[in-house]
TrEMBL record:
Domain of life: Archaea
Keywords, ordered alphabetically: Membrane, Transmembrane, Transmembrane helix
Name of the protein in question: Uncharacterized protein
Membrane-spanning residues: 7-31, 43-64, 76-95, 110-129
Length: 140
């Protein structure tokens, strides 16, 4: 059935969880910062080590599994999208509590942006539930 694409989807799920956690920890810290920090740089770093590779891995797993369809891989990709959406929704609710000095464009834009990305990831996972196995034609 599913070979390496299952492990790629698991890695994508882990990276989605990591990114959501990092953003929520940063936003929680920005509500009452003890040390001055640049939120734009931190967020860019979190995107480059978290959600960008996670999206690439989810897309790779989707492309590898779309030919035959897999509920397991689709479920993992769907779970990654749900985790990303829930994490960004939580971060979005924290924005109003962030210190006004740190409430910059990047901090306010990232949660809605990645909520949109999460819908695309969830759609890709849901597509794999719908895909049926193609019959193998035997010519000889």
């Amino acid at each position: 059935m599913a070979g390496i694409e299952k492990y790629i989807a698991i890695a994508a799920l882990g990276l989605f969880v990591m990114f959501a956690g990092e953003i929520n920890v940063l936003y929680n810290y920005l509500t009452n910062p003890n040390v001055e920090v640049e939120p734009e740089a931190k967020i860019l770093m979190y995107i480059s080590i978290g959600v960008a590779p996670a999206s690439s891995l989810a897309g790779t797993a989707f492309i590898m599994a779309k030919r035959y369809g897999s509920r397991q891989i689709g479920g993992l990709i769907l779970a990654g999208g749900i985790v990303l959406f829930a994490g960004m929704l939580s971060a979005n609710y924290m924005i109003q509590n962030i210190d006004p000095n740190y409430r910059v464009y990047t901090v306010e834009t990232i949660p809605p942006l990645f909520m949109g990305v999460s819908f695309a990831v969830m759609a890709a996972g849901a597509f794999l539930f719908r895909t049926k196995k193609r019959p193998i034609k035997e010519f000889f």
